[in-house]
Design a protein that fits this description.
single chain, 6 strands
């Protein structure tokens, strides 16, 4: 091989390496949507997909109930059933944390409270990621608590933006669920 050819080959490798260093990485997918739904509704449960379509008035209603903005107008959600009875609901919420997206699956019980929050994909550096232990404090929180969640969920130093993003997502999902999916799940007198 001629010396000139080898040098060009290495320069291509170096150029590709440099390009890879400045190219944003793809989302770190923790689980696929199918895996997440199997986690939420393990077999032999059946899963049905439904969609909420929000007009401006409905979006304003969610904003008022949740105390946070809802940016999407088409919201798919999933219902799990076993033996003809609802076993729970699952919503996927994708939002920016700092400058990159995160996708959560927020599971809701048949009674309308949060069963669990799972991280499906997280693009930010892992230092900004919230822990499972921190996410556990959302369990059992209901729609009547949605606007006040920032006050009852303990802060998380070092991941403040992530904590705010998760809290806002939980508030949105609780409000959407109470207003458009299962109005009967809200506590009496809830907003």
């Amino acid at each position: 091989m001629r010396p000139g050819r080898r040098a060009r080959g290495w320069s291509v490798v170096v150029a590709l390496g440099a390009a890879a260093a400045v190219t944003p990485a793809l989302a770190r997918v923790e689980m696929t949507q199918a895996e997440a739904l199997r986690l939420a509704f393990p077999p032999p449960q059946e899963v049905e997909r439904r969609t909420i379509y929000l007009d401006e008035a409905a979006a304003a209603q969610v904003k008022a109930a949740a105390g946070t903005v809802i940016e999407v107008r088409v919201v798919p959600y999933y219902i799990g059933r076993a033996a003809g009875k609802v076993t729970g609901y699952a919503y996927f919420d994708t939002h920016l944390v700092r400058t990159l997206p995160e996708t959560l699956m927020i599971r809701i019980t048949p009674g309308g409270t949060i069963a669990a929050i799972d991280i499906v994909a997280f693009d930010e550096p892992s230092d900004y990621r919230v822990t499972g232990r921190w996410l556990d404090q959302f369990r059992g929180r209901g729609p009547e608590e949605a606007p006040g969640l920032p006050g009852v969920i303990r802060s998380l130093s070092g991941a403040t933006l992530s904590a705010r993003a998760v809290t806002s997502a939980a508030r949105r999902v609780l409000a959407l669920h109470r207003l458009f999916v299962d109005p009967g799940s809200a506590a009496a007198g809830a907003p």
